[in-house]
Amino acid sequence: MAAAKSPMKTQKTDGTVRLNPKGDLVASTVETLRDGMVKALESATEAVVLDLSSTKQIDSLGITLVLGLFKSCQKKEITFSIEGANTDLLRVFKLFNLTKFFSITEATRE
Amino acid sequence: MSQFATFHVGDRLFGLDILGVREIIRVFNITPVPRAESHIRGLINLRGQIVTILDLAVRLGHEALPVKDSSHIVILKHGANTAQGNGRNQGGTQDLMGLLVDAIGDVVEAEASLAEAPPANLTDAEERFLSGVLKTDEGLLVLLNLQELLSSG
Amino acid sequence: MSSFADESIISDFVAESREHLATIEPDLLRMEQEGAKVSAEVINRVFRAIHSIKGGAGFFAFDALKRLSHAMEGVLMQVRDGKLKVAADVMDVVFASLDRLKAMLDDIQASDSVPFTQELAKLEAILNGQGVAVGEMVKGREKGATREFDLDAESVRSALRRGMNLFRAIAYLHRDIRDKGLTPLAFLNNALSVGTCLDAFIDVEAIADLEHCLEQDLPVTLLFASVLEPDLAALGLKLPVDQVKVMEVEALRKEVKAKAKAEQKVVAVVAATPPEAEPEAEIPGDLPAEEKTTREVTKDTGNETLRVRVDLLTNLMNLAGELVLGRNQLVRAITDSQHEIPGLGAILQNVNQVTTEMQEGIMQTRMQPIGTVFSRFPRIIRDMSRQLEKQIDVHIEGAEVELDKSIVEMLVDPLTHIIRNCADHAIESPAERQKARKDPTGTIHLHAFHEGGQINIAVHDDGRGIDAKKVLAKAIAKGLVTKAQGAEMTEREMVHLVFEPGFSMAEKVSEISGRGVGMDVVRTNVEKLGGHVEMETELGMGTTVRLRLPLTLAIIPSMIVGVADHRFAIPQVNVVEFVWVKASEVSQRIEQVQGALVLRLRDKLLPLVRLADVLGLQRVFENPETGEQLPDRRVSLADRRGELPEEPDNATPRQGDRRTDWRSDHNIIVLRVGKNHYGVIVDELFDIEEIVVKPLSGFIQGTKCFSGATILGDGRVIMILDAGGLATVANLHFTDLQAEELRRAEEEKRSAALKASRRRSVILFEAATGERFAVPQDHVLRLERIVKTKIEFIGEREYIEYRGEGLPLLRLDQHLAVRPLKAELQELFLVIPKIPGQSSTTRPPAGILISEILDALDVEVELKAVEFTGPGLLGSAVVQDHLTLFLDPVALLQAAGLMGGVA
Asked: How many CB pairs under 8 A join B and C?
């Protein structure tokens, strides 16, 4: 229903944009997500928060997307962080040492 | 004063400085070595070590000794000093040597420096292997030149 | 300064430095061969080795060592940085300096007394750009690709301590993960199942912005620790091999170490090329003990190793040997009572197995790859070829083959000698080789391999080969053999004369290998190890020297045999098989060839010796065995030997000698000596036992028949037979027999062919009355009837006009011992033979005169030799109840000189 139309919920508070993809960050979704992110990024001035609380899986393209998002934030000199990552996602980010670049916080539930 | 281990070979009394003697044992199972020189009497197993036995009589140019009840083997402290002797002797296995003798005598104390030259009527072999004679209470003690005795050839 | 550095640290440093030097020598050779193409890794390895020696030398205040290694390091640094081209003259200096370093390490306390100023001056000249070509820059090396890993010292250290390899693995997110159907998580989980991920790194700078990122295939670099070897690690990580590189642990560790004290978290710089600053880093003086162990334990392979003193192992091995003996004695002692004690059998078996395994394990510890010897040869050949102005390649195969350390060590001299000979004498100068249409670069091929429980080492060169005739001439000139002996020698035997003491092939004493010792020393050394040397050569093509060696000297399974009342051990490696010849078969299977006893075994003829005869043992053994009497008998035997030299006839089995009378079955053990086999007749065969080889006293080694002695389970000493020595003492000539074998094989072939054609069509005829002959039909072209009056004489020879030409006639009685034809016969017959390969229209060379043609028939006969001989006689057989001589007309014509012009 709504998820089909908009795969990502975008929320803006002051200069901070909160992106909440409604599903996994995988090949089939990344293109749409990217387009949404590009648009959302335009209005971000302070920070971008990627909320992965609805995301269960991430594939290679998903990681590339996250890194691209990070890179764009870096260029705009705004902070980037990830929230609500489940254990699997956290494990991938940690093993790839992405925590070195931006803060990643766990999903509070589970 | 030195102490000499004495032993009989034929009708002679021989002496060796006791410091050069490791032990003296009874004769048992000598394994002959075919084709070896005649003065090689054979090999024995001395508590896991192989000892090469020289027939002193043959070495001195006489007939071989028959083994008798009184026969003994004088095991020497020093190994043979042959050229090839050390080729494979790693790990401290010594080239142990023993002398087959007719009978053993007492340990005799004597002043080694009083030794006189060996008598003139000797065989060539004796001249090479005898270093001198000592007069003792037991009679004339013939001293052996151990170093020569233990060099091959 | 070295006062507080205790002895053991210094000896560790020396041992380690020696290892460094040993490992970099092949690297230096590679640098020289590959020039600018050599991988940076190789240069770095060399560089680091020298650097660490310099560091240690500085720390322990070994001034000469430090100064020389410092200068070497400088030169290597220039090479590494592409400022200096690796030319042969540069390498000369580097190699010479390397040798000096080795010399210094050989006696570290006296290291300052090793002369090194010359080498130092040369190195400094190179450093200052004098006297050497400062080469072109080595291009294309990636620079500045410095990447940072965050890692904590403890995890690296612990990985290294556990003997892991460190890898730098690159995984492309798409190509290596997604395209293989993996999620990043699955990829990582898999990676973690084969090792530990110490750190990962994604180059953020390389990422495009959000818009364009999805088209990118981002690489993730992992610092990965695993016990796997590099190629397996790639497989385990599911990555292409070229994306997984072993990290230079030394460099990493040094960095970790240097900063470990200041901060727990350190940054290790990992780059395609090590940073410039590295050479200046001194090895920290106060290495914590733990660090030191780490360093040793992690030496290259990743297998955990310990340094153990060799004498400790030797001692352990001797003890294991004694244990084996003890076990044997124990087993023997309680075998009989085994059934009385329940469970004893199982215990025995257990002890048995554990002992065997332990012994094998201990033997293993002393095994060393032959490569430790082989590895020195490329360098030797390199130096020699420069000195001799030759071009020589060295190929090594089978460097991993393992041998007992003591054998490896004792092989150094003989092998070095053989190799030097190859380079010095065998390989020709490039000009000479070109003239002979050979590759100007000669090749020396070293090959080690296992065969039949032995080690084979072959050294092959493609040089000029050895001229057997020249060897013989020289041996005769030197008085090693007489002319008469030489005349009977095969080429192979001639070539083997180079192994004779006192033979030295070199015409002039060269600086390199004419050191007065020759191949005889090689042979002596190899035989001392219980091995054998052989040589094969082909003039102009090259020479191969083969060594066969036992795996170990210490414990060998052996067959125990009895002769008279003596027992002997024959190492099983020498035993090919056991042959039992029954008394009834003796005459068929054992015979004499040229006065020597021979065993016919399948299609082979094996020389045969009686052990008792070779060893000069008395063959009578009826006397009861009493220890005391043994020596007596031996001495009397010596007397007997003096007056009664053994005649070969005495040894024939057909002659009933005292010993074989009562039981003339023969126990024959077939032994192997190099490629040759021979049989040894013994009285009795006992078990196969594992025996501990005890070396023989120098007094006994001259007998040549024995390789050692051993103590049997029952405590008695027995001699170990030396198969090669025995063959020498018995004076066996294998080559004679090979010729005889060949002759027999051919004869057999011929008689087989003859038998196959036993059934033949013949023409039966009569010459003188009652003398019957047969000629195979296929040897007859035509039969003609002639009238006697038509025979004409030209000189002594009879002719007849045959188809318009004069045909010579042949009378059998003129060539064979048969009666002449009856003179009164007016009508005669002619046998006109068929000449193989000629058509029937060709004029026949002659006709054979006979009196009557009796029959043409098929006969099945076996030809027997006839008492009288003559040309063209195939043999005789009974045909139609008459003795008939079978003729070969062609041979007959040949003998009569009538085949002229006809081949």
From this structure: 127
